[in-house]
Structure formats: C-alpha cells, structure tokens
Amino acid sequence: MSENHNIRLMKGNEALAEAAIRAGCQAFFGYPITPQSEILEYLTDEGRKRGMIVLQAESEVASINMVYGAAGAGARAMTSSSSPGISLMQEGLSYIACAELPCLVVNVNRGGPGLGTIQPAQGDYFQATKGGGHGDYHLIVLAPASVQEMADFVFDGFDLADKYRNPVMILADGALGQMMEKVDFREYDPKDHTPVKPWATVGKPKERPRNILTSLHIQPEKMEQINLHLQAKYKEICQNEVRYEIVETDDAEFLIVAYGLVARIAHRAVEIARDRGIRVGLLRPVSLYPYPYSAVRELADQVHGVLVAEMNAGQMVEDVRLAVEGRVAVEFYGRMGGIIPSPEEIVKALEKVICKDVKLTAEAY
User: How many CB atoms lie within 10 A of CB 58?
Assistant: First the structure.
C-alpha cells in the first residue's frame, strides 16, 4: 500500500502551520510567544523551503501591520500569537477590518489577565467576538476542538476571509496547540480558492483609477456610509456562516453549551451523565462569530435548564443568555488561570442545575 502523505501525527500548532502552507498562504509575520511559538518555528523552516515569505517581526504591533500591507497587496497573509500578543494587535485589526482586507489571525489562548500563565484558557472570548479593538467591527471567529480542526479551519479561514474581505480569527488554546493527534489534510489547490482581487494595491494600469485602501475618512458622512456597509456585510455573514455541532439533543431534558477544548470534555460529561440516567445534550458553537443564537434558542424551548462550561470567569455565557431570552435558567461553570475542568466536574455542575430545576418545579406546585 502506498504511503498517504496527507495523514500525519502532529502537534496542533504544527498542523495549523502545515495547513497554512497547503492553503497557499504567501506571507506570515509573527513574534514568538508561548504556547504558539511552534507555528512561527515550523513556518520559518518548512514555509520558507516551500516558497512562503516568513518574517519574525520586532513585535506583535509590527506583525499585524505587515499583515495589513501584504493583504492590501492581495497576498494570502496571516499572523499568530497568544493572548497578550493579540492584545497588541487590536489597533491593526481594526484598521484591517475597516479597509476590508482578508487575512487570517490565530490566537492560541493562554491564561490571564496580564502576562498570566502559559497554560490553556478561554479568557479571550470577549476580545475575539465583540471586536476587541476600537469601532464597530467584527472578525469571523472559528473555534477548533481538535488538532484536525486546527488544520481544517485554516483552509476555511482563508476562504471565508477572501469571500467577505474580512479578517478571520482561529481562537484555539494552549492545550490544542500542544497536543498531538492524527491529522488528515484535505486535498486543496489554492488556485481554485483564491479569487481575483481587483481592489489590491499592485500598481495602477491606465484603464482604472488608483486603488486606495484606508480606514481614515475625515468626513463623518463618509465614515457613516462605510460603517453601514460593514454592518450590512456582518448581517450577511450572520445569515450564511453560522456553524455548530449538536450531540445527543433529540431527547435532551438539559443542555450543556461549550466550545473548543471544553466542548470535548463536555462531550465526555454527556456520556457520563447519560450513563447515570440524565438526559443531557451538548451544543458546541463552532463559529463564535457569527454565533448560533437560533440553535441555542430552539433547544432552550425543549430543555429544563442550560449549563455553560468555559475556561474563564463567564464570557460566552452572556451570548447563551441572550439566545435563551429567559426561557429557562442558564447556569455557568468555569475554571480560570489555566486550569482545565474534568468531565466529572461538569457533571457535578450539571447536577446542581438539575437540583435547582427540581426545587423550582416543587415550588411551582
């Protein structure tokens, strides 16, 4: 049997970097920070050998502005960092969003606030999904839950970025970046996925006016029109690009909502709870922006209570409560500082939700 070069055992960071090469990424600019440094290291070696421009910039601020320039010239460009480094990129991301430039940004989330710890966390949810920088803008945000998805979402991310002329973020965490799993790289020819970019700043032919890419518009009327255009685009994204996974929800009386690494742990918690006779299901948002509000809302009509599990103090839980609109109680269980919850912890938190539901039912009668 011939060897399949598309299947490999890799770290999440390395799988993501290999996918970037295969997806036709032409330029990577970054700065080392744990736990994502393997992305830069892998691309410095493999990416350069295979024709990619790879540069370790002097800072994260420089990195994101180099991405701005490369994307403006029509290149498939990306950067990666971890939490504090992504914070430094927020101004540049706001510029890129307003100039409507496609690019890919990877955040391998670590515990904070501040420099925090190098351990995995999900404390950057608000930053990723609510803009993060200044002004009214959004990134498309994808949340992988496996090494396979660390690779898959690179291809999806570049395609979405080009489709909507919008920056895309892959929001992972330190555990996904460091764990090793089997990866099956999809067949993908970048030439079939890279659109013509007539807006790019690649020199001015005589037959067209100059291309100007900027986020600076002094006249308020002009700035408002650009904002209205962006909001219409975000509405289109919300209509077309919602992604989620559901597990054991057909007969569920209770629902767990979790994303990324915690969703994997919650999947095991669902199995444990069902072995104990508790009918519980799982909803995993795959796109954090756009968020699957409708899917959460529909399941809220079916269940008695919802538990949101995260590695933070409670961030996505706010979007779940917005979706549920008071139909049922929404409880939260979280660990912080780089602590990963166990399936048993999530089951115990679920049992508290059930106890509250039983109490409320008894009081109603």
Answer: 9
pLDDT band at 6 (very low <50, low <70, confident <90, very high): confident
Could you tell me where the beta strands, DSSP code E, fall in the chain?
7-11, 27-30, 53-56, 77-81, 103-109, 140-142, 167-173, 180-184, 244-247, 254-257, 280-285, 287-289, 305-310, 329-334
Q: What is the residue-wise DSSP string for 183-247?
A: EEPPP--GGGT----TTS-S---TTSPPP---S---SHHHHHHHHHHHHHHHHHHHHH---EEEE
Residues 274-312: pLDDT tens digits?
999 999 999 999 999 999 999 999 999 999 999 999 999
**Alpha-carbon span 51 to 19, nearest angstrom:** 14
Rounded CA gap, 100 and 81, in Å?
Answer: 21
Q: What are 7's strand-pairing partners?
A: 184
Tokens 């938190």 sit at which residue? Answer: 349
Does residue 263 sit in helix, strand or coil?
A: helix
As given in the structure block, the two tokens for residue 249 are: 């929800």
Amino acid in the structure at residue 142? L
* 96: amino acid identity, one letter: I
Instruction: Say which residues have a Cβ less than 8 Å from residue 84's Cβ, sequence separation at least 6.
Output: 33, 112, 114, 115, 116
Residue 61 CB neighbours (<10 A): 16
The amino acid that residue 313 corresponds to is A
Give the integer Cα–Cα distance in Å for 13 and 44. Answer: 13
